[in-house]
Amino acid sequence: xxxxxxxxxxxxxxxxxxxxxxxxxxxxxxxxxxxxxxxxxxxxxxxxxxxxxxxxxxxxxxxxxxxxxxxxxxxxxxxxxxxxxxxxxxxxxxxxxxxxxxxxxxxxxxxxxxxxxxxxxxxxxxxxxxxxxxxxxxxxxxxxxxxxxxxxxxxxxxxxxxxxxxxxxxxxxxxxxxxxxxxxxxxxxxxxxxxxxxxxxxx
Length: 203
Prior knowledge:
Blueprint: H1 2-13, H2 28-38, E1 50-55, H3 58-79, H4 82-89, H5 99-102, E2 105-112, E3 114-116, E4 122-124, H6 128-145, E5 149-150, H7 159-164, E6 171-180, H8 196-199
Antiparallel strand pairs: 1-2, 2-6, 3-4, 5-6
């Protein structure tokens, strides 16, 4: 048990967000297995209120990038506070999002605000955001364990994703996750993570 726990810790410690992706194709069945793993997440009343859309069509990825960059330019120019912009400086982010086209697969995760029965009536969902958050965590680890790089991208607002991907009214985009191999010249910021004694409280 201890060996497995420590081995898992060492694996996830090596996970880093990548912003420069190779265009080299990746095995789609590996991505499907990772999504299936995410689908095992616990959820409120076992409603499983999530939809994962895997985008590989270059034209659709281009449309997503163009819409995301338009929103991001507005964010950087007027929506973000000075404090927020300063917090992002060390990460080197800006409104340009080439990863949305370069990554061979772009996963868009939607939360289902409510379910819809076959007759069109609504089904109440519980703890939707929490449930989807857990599923995304499992997804990221599964992709990392498989040897794929990821980026969690949250363009704001994200309403354009439902329209671009033709999703129904009960779904809201939560996160965009480009998936692939890092480009040969990919770099990541030098960051630190909080120590265990900073995040764990024993009572």
